[in-house]
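sanity check this record:

:::
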Amino acid sequence: MSDVLDDDVSRNEDKSPSEAAALSLALSAAAHHEAVAEKAAHFLDEQTKLVRLQAEDLRKEDAIRHWSLRVRHINDLLKLAFGLSGAILVTAIAIGALALVWSAHEATGLIIQPLKAPPDFSQRGLDGTVLAQRLLDKLNGYVRDAGKWSFRAADNVSGNWGNDSKVEIPDTGISIFELTRFLRQRLGNETSMSGELYRTNNGIALTVRVGANPGTTFEGHEDDVDALLSRAALELLKETQPYRYILALYVQGKPPAKVALVAQELIENAGGTELPWLMANREEMEAFAGEFRQSLEHARATIAVAPSNPTGFIDLAPAEWAIGHLEGALNHIETAERLLTSRSQADLDPSAVVYLIENCRSFAADVRGAYSDAVIADISESKTGTFDFDISGPGSLANDLALDHDIAAASAVLARHPGLSDAVLLQPKYVITTGPDMPFFYLHATAGDWVGARHTIERTDAILGQQSDTKDVRHSLVWPWLAYSLARTRALEAGEELIAKTPLDCTLCLEMRGRLAEESGDLKGAARWYDRASRDAPSLPFSVTDWGVMLLRQGDKDGAIAKFAQAYERSPRYADASELWGEALMQKNRSDLALAKFEEANKYAPHWGRLHLKWGEALAHIGRKDDARAQVDAARSMDLSAADRGALARWEAATHA
């Protein structure tokens, strides 16, 4: 607009001096002459019209100019938008290409090409695609079966293809699918399998191969196609996922000792992350075969290769327990738990980690005598376990309930599982899973029924004696308790002969040697064995507790209390040590002090009949008759040994006298 105004001003300034003078004279004359004024007015009207026309023209020119500027601006914006769109499109194409390349690079799936087969097989519904799909189904079936016994994270398994497995259906022409397949083959880690089925002079043969590797051929009869596919699938699993292959062999029912030899062969050619896992396969299979000492050696080798992986320690602990190395078993299972809880275990399946932590806690509590803790862990373990707990789960729970003096609860568990027996639970695969459990024997022993205990463990030993894989369990767990059961049922000489056959590197064997020496009246010999057992397992409370019981029987109350205090220090949640400490204090006429020990024991063994009976006696001695009656009533509702029932009858007779 300023430009237009400037133009107008310039035009006015361009008027000649004569025109300006004429205009000035005309205006001056118009002031004195009417005619002149009329003409001047007409002139001014005309000039006004002209100015208006010029102003209107200027407004139109200005509108057109503004419209032109807008059009020019829009044009510039469109050019910019088209430019940006092109850049975005190019960027998107580049990103898409990079994503395609990266996806291809990270590809780990399994592709099985249609198997070549004679034309008449297609007429029977067994064309190459169908045969390949059946082969794939068998492969994935082996993977699922192996997973039931695996703690390992699926993505950590070498050759793992997870859910990305398929039969390749040939396509023609160029497409995104073809490009993707080409890139995955060139850049990725996909596993490709192929093969052919053909006739031979003796029937048919199936050759399968992984990638460009040489093929493996399996021969059979015309009607053996399914069996050939199974054998081929197993061979393909061996080439691609040797860790799962070992587990699949075990699930199929192959003898663990033979599977361990296969694992050994694979170890010789293994390396990297697969080596410790194959080593773990080997030691586990040896343990499943009952070769616990050999498993120990190999578990230590696994730990040397992978010290931060808890698997070696988890395998080592039950093998140590099975041969009687209780201190070592405790140390290793506690190390495993620390590794599981204190650091990330990316190599392990997260659900397996939850189970393993509970398993370690149950195991450690058992070894320490903290049976109420073991019961809690048993219940949690059965809810998180990846294995079949129909046998080992209730067996372990009943075992720990019995040792925790809850005889009624243990009996109820066993009643719900009539197929259980100590001989079944002492099979190596269950010993490795939950530890060596003997709930039927412990039910009798805890109740003081040594006749029933002897009968039960003799039957167990007879069954196990017919097997070749239970030698260590018999020698280190069954025989020590059988020897003591014999001694408690007037067969001391037979017990002494049997205990002499047990190994000296077995804590329970040393402890039972002390008990048998005590039964024979050799108190000094008993003390020596108890001392040796105590030093053999310095973290465990059992041998010093037995030693204290012997001293209490001799009348050495202070010596007994010292041993019970030592046992309590080693394992504060072992209820027997606190209860016996209370009994020793009662014999010193310090029932007032005994109450605290009984209360402590009650935290961990609330269903122990003898505990409540002795607690009631202590309360009665200090004059708290009502409280005493409540404890005795509680004892009456629980299981009591024959000796305790006699004590209860005498106490009640004295009370009513």
